[in-house]
Here is the input.
Amino acid sequence: MLRKTMMRLACVPLAAALAACGSAPVAPGYYRVERGDTVTKIARAHHESVPSIVRWNNLTNPNSIEVGQVLRVVPPGTNAAAGAPIRTNPGTATASAGGTAPVLAAPEATAPANGISLIWPTAGKVIHGFDGVNYKGIDIANAAGTPIVAAAAGTVVYAGNGLRGYGNLLIVKHDADFLTAYAHNRTMLVKEGEHVAQGQKIAEMGDTDNDRVALHFELRYGGKSIDPSRYLPSR
Here is the structure.
């Protein structure tokens, strides 16, 4: 059951967060869903079949894609630059014939080593680490009600439970590049638009939309996942 939940989390984008913070360019071979898109429309635009798009993205319901969701639109293991141009959101670069960028199964951003200074968002045991492919953050387990604090100062850009698989979710934007996400909270203590200080209590640990009490913690750079453990102090 826990494995099933982890896989569901890995496949759900932080759509609301990316919309609030500005959409980053997607990697060659991928497309970010826009308002009004359907799987059929996306498949036709990229000269692929609907079953292929469904299979490459493990879509359980092709009629339920979300704005901001990133979908693979070329076959796994191929070079996107060798095919037709890949359409991205307005104002972003496109990958055209003659390019050399390979298609990555799960692109991870490369952030400057000194880009952000984090503290641990909660006390507890890390029960699942980041792998960048099937798991886009870390899970820290403890008792229900354990305090959750802001890992760095910033502004709350999302506070709600509208993203499937994340339960009660807080997203804090730290600057133009970095944001952190705190999922499965029992209680959320801050609201959208509120500025929070590093170490300020923002929530209490819970199990909303999860099968055990734990904090699912993500770090994003330019909208893409980064291993939070690289930026957290040793303990």
